[in-house]
Design brief:
Blueprint (H helix, E strand, L loop, with lengths): L9 H16 L7 E2 L7 H5 L12 H17 L3 E2 L6 H14 L4 E4 L13 E5 L4 E3 L1 H8 L6 H8 L14 H11 L2 H6 L12 H10 L1 H11 L21 H10 L3 H8 L9
Parallel strand pairs: 1-2, 3-4
Antiparallel strand pairs: 4-5
Helix pairs in contact: 1-3, 6-7, 6-10, 11-12
């Protein structure tokens, strides 16, 4: 997508459309948007290859990011971006803080590592399937509670983030070990009992686990979302959305979002269509 001036607008439209759908569905709630930092963080310090397999952001997409920031602010949504801090760690910290003061939290994300944050009060919106994932859904799918998702990633790794995991250990084997022993620490505490498990190749699995202890614990550290990032935000007094109408009209006109422009003019952009 491009506007009448030849400027790219596909990412802008896609992200704002996604946000609008979330706002329309949960419009009685406060919303925060978190963006990733392009700078390296502590995970790169402890593992140089962290996210190294990700391609560089296309130039056309990169140009749209600053505009996205401006439009999101014009919608009235707090936008958080902290240099050298991953969005996951900001989301984890805010979710943990919000739960402590009695709030319920919905996180819109399709990332598997986010599942470790799930509690009865913190749940995940999977936008692909439009479902909400809580502890019961994770237990049903993986057979383990949310807190052990970190250990699952530590063993099997994560291709998306280039987290190594234990070579030769996939999701199926990792889940067998976790269901039998528990967390990574308990697996290594009872490592001698792996080879007597009633599973195929138990002895080889035991050897792989023993040989790659350092990699396993490194992977767990890389997979663990931080819950203590310093963030100056008053969660108890988040304001509901207040559109900056003139600014939105300018952006929607500039990028040829004609239907949205008309809806903003009619004060119906955030009203569910019948």
């Amino acid at each position: 997508m491009i506007n009448k001036s030849g400027e790219p607008s596909g990412a802008i439209y896609g992200v704002i459309n996604m946000l609008r759908k979330i706002i329309l569905k949960y419009q009685d709630n406060q919303i925060i948007i978190v963006f990733d930092s392009p700078h390296k963080n502590f995970r790169h310090d402890i593992f140089k290859k962290y996210k190294k397999n990700r391609p560089a952001m296309p130039e056309n997409l990169k140009k749209q990011i600053p505009i996205l920031y401006k439009i999101i602010k014009s919608i009235g949504i707090p936008l958080i971006f902290i240099p050298s801090v991953e969005a996951d760690d900001i989301i984890g910290t805010l979710s943990y803080r919000a739960e402590k003061i009695g709030l319920t939290i919905l996180i819109s994300s399709n990332d598997k590592d986010m599942l470790q944050l799930v509690t009865e009060n913190i749940k995940i919106i999977n936008s692909t399937y439009d479902v909400i994932i809580g502890p019961k859904e994770i237990q049903k799918k993986y057979g383990i509670p949310p807190k052990l998702i970190i250990d699952l990633l530590a063993l099997m790794g994560d291709v998306v983030d280039n987290i190594p995991g234990v070579p030769g250990i996939g999701e199926k084997t990792a889940l067998i070990l976790i269901k039998h022993f528990g967390c990574l620490e308990k697996i290594y505490k009872e490592i001698k009992n792996i080879k007597i498990l009633p599973i195929r190749g138990a002895n080889n699995i035991s050897i792989k686990i023993k040989k790659n202890k350092e990699i396993a614990f490194l992977s767990k550290k890389l997979s663990t979302i931080k819950l203590d990032i310093p963030i100056d935000l008053d969660l108890e007094n988040l304001k509901t959305l207040r559109l900056k109408k003139q600014k939105l009209l300018y952006f929607f006109d500039h990028y040829n979002f004609k239907k949205w422009k008309k809806q903003v003019e009619n004060d119906s952009w955030l009203i569910t269509e019948k």
